[in-house]
Amino acid sequence: MTTDELILQTLHHTTLTEELRDSEIEVLAGVVTLQRYKAGEVIIEPGRNPLAESLMILAEGEAEIQATVNNEPMTLQLNKQGDLASIIGFVGGKGTNINARVEVKQDGAVLLLERSKLESLLDKHPAIVYYVMRGLVRYMHGVARRKTAETEEMSNYFYKMHGRY
């Protein structure tokens, strides 16, 4: 598969483009870059985030995000084409202080969407920016729902609540 084909295929598999037409996805493809990584590489770590204002979209392989949120460790697996990472840095910019680590678990590739490149579409393609941001919110909402369900399930298991265990 060529780089261009992988980019388009990945964009079609992410919530960012659910409301975009094919021609709009092609415009978005023109502002993303593809970066390949080897298993064991650390892409982001506390104090070192070369992609501070870039959204990562998993194209191939697997990666793991480890972060501390409200003094609680959290792990998130990226294992499906179209999974997203570095969302808070993408939205919040360099001033955002997130202690996260992203490690590649299986050789692969990610698409990088720099915030400034997405913003460059505002004048000529404002609908693309609007729908991409809506897709980003939908993705985050899905992650929050899944994590809440997992936490509730674990709580039910540990405390034997609701007669399920």
TrEMBL record:
Q: Which CDD domains match?
A: CAP_ED
* InterPro entries for the chain: cNMP-bd_dom (IPR000595), cNMP-bd_dom_sf (IPR018490), RmlC-like_jellyroll (IPR014710)
Name the record gives this protein? Transcriptional regulator protein
Q: Where is the Cyclic nucleotide-binding domain?
A: 16-139
Q: Which residues cross the membrane?
A: none
Name the domain of life: Bacteria
